[in-house]
Amino acid sequence: MSATGETSSSPDASPELFDKIVNLTKRRGFVYPSAEIYGGFRSTYDYGPIGVLLLRNVKDAWWRSMVQLRPDVVGLDASILSPPQVWEASGHLANFTDPLVDCTNCNTRWRLDKLDDPEVCPACGSRGTFTEPRQFNLMFQTHAGPLQDAGSVAYLRPETAQGMFINFKNVVDTTRVRPPFGIAQVGKSFRNEITPGQFVFRTREFEQMEMEFFVPPADAQQWYDYWCNERYQWYLDHGMPAEKLRLRPHDDDELSHYSSGTSDVEFLFPWGWDELEGIANRGDYDLRQHAEHSGEKLEWYDQAANERWIPHVIEPAAGATRTAMAFLMAAYDEEEVKGETRVVLRLHHRIAPYKVAVLPLSKKPELSEPARALAAELRGSFMCDYDETQSIGRRYRRQDELGTPYCITMDFDSLTDGAVTVRERDSMEQERIGIAEVDAYLRERLV
Ligand code: GAP
């Protein structure tokens, strides 16, 4: 159970990139600080019109690979609010903590295990002024119902995983699954992080994409290796450059209490290598714990062999918001074009917010009307932007900054030859194709 990721510096990391990406995300409507008109709210963020598309595409790409294309994984959407019993059984009430110290000189609060020197306050530099460490639980507590007493305590889930474990029996009893099989879920999780930061990398409210894969105990190692490879490959398949991605097995002293093996998929962020996803071999810890605490049998009955056993679990657990940020960082590029700097997000087409933009060369109705009609037609198949303001050069630059793979330009010749110009984002190459062919042209390249 890792509350926060580890960071490490690298000579390849470029710190200026971080500021550029944060500026771009604000300027182009990807991400806004939450409650900004009130001065912002404690490292929480809102996803704007472009960011919501990006984030949705990351989650959809994950769901497509992990559920839609697999005969052995089913989906779930469990509740965010849950009773204390769940977190008692999972170990979160006892163990999901970070050690906190306060500086008695300057009244700042720190995570002890993240300090360079555990004796020295990074804010005021004084030595030996920290209080004794105390364990701080990262779960958000609330009350369900009108009474605020011990009986109404509830928690916002700090991970989606437990929803899968506590529904194991429901899924087995109501579907045709048999081990090896997985239950997958995408959704919000909440952690009262002591040190949120690095933009959307570590926030108190975030989205996870997790899958619990239930296997016969003897096959656990083989499936762990399989999922490490699959998950690493997923990032490459969606455009992450291999030199910015690595799979790092945890050392023994990093392993959570339940895990007999964990590897992290790490991305080279501007501040160094950091975690996108953990793949863990959780053994039978979770099902055993919930069986003990709930009194329900959470096991598999193999009729043919007349045997009962508790499946072991392999868990690929990824962060959607963090991964979206990594895709942005990996895709960001600048190049000189005709003496000007072109900023372009070279996003994989599945991740790109808009797939296509229709740009008439003039606002005059004889062009804008057929251009709007083409955009309306394309919207049936793709997220399609429409823009008739400013010069065509500036409109191309805007779409480049949004990562839109194709721009379709309609000009006055289109009215007579029934053709449009398609411009490809990365090469900026243009070709002329018939209006009637646009949908098929894009389908071939984008699906
Ligand atoms: N069920 C196991 C689990 O939750 P984790 O490593 O704590 O494992 C999985 O979380 C992923 O969730 C992380 O790899 C990271 O991508 C994401 N994540 C965790 N805490 C986060 C936070 N505070 N902000 C953004 N993403 C977070």
Describe this structure in words.
Helix content is 30%, strand content 29%. It is of the alpha+beta class and 447 residues long. The strands form 7 sheets. A 7-stranded mixed sheet has the order 3-10-11-17-14-13-12. A 5-stranded mixed sheet has the order 21-20-22-23-24, with helices on both faces. The model is unreliable at 1-12 (pLDDT under 50). The site of glycyl-adenosine-5'-phosphate has 20 residues, from strand 11, strand 14, strand 17 and helix 9.
Key structural traits:
24 strands; alpha+beta; 5-stranded mixed β-sheet; binds glycyl-adenosine-5'-phosphate; 7-stranded mixed β-sheet; 29% strand; 447 residues
- State the major sheet: 7 strands, mixed
Low-confidence parts:
1-12
How far the N terminus sits from the C terminus, by CA atoms, comes to 37 Å
The radius of gyration is 25 Å
Strand segment tally: 24
Proportion in β-strands? 25-35%
Number of H/I helices = 13
Q: Output the strand order for the largest sheet.
A: 3-10-11-17-14-13-12
Q: What does the average pLDDT come to?
A: 94
- What would the principal axes of the Cα set say about the shape? globular
Say what oligomer this is: single chain
Helix percent band? 25-40%
Give me the secondary-structure category: alpha+beta
Bound compounds, each kind once, are: glycyl-adenosine-5'-phosphate
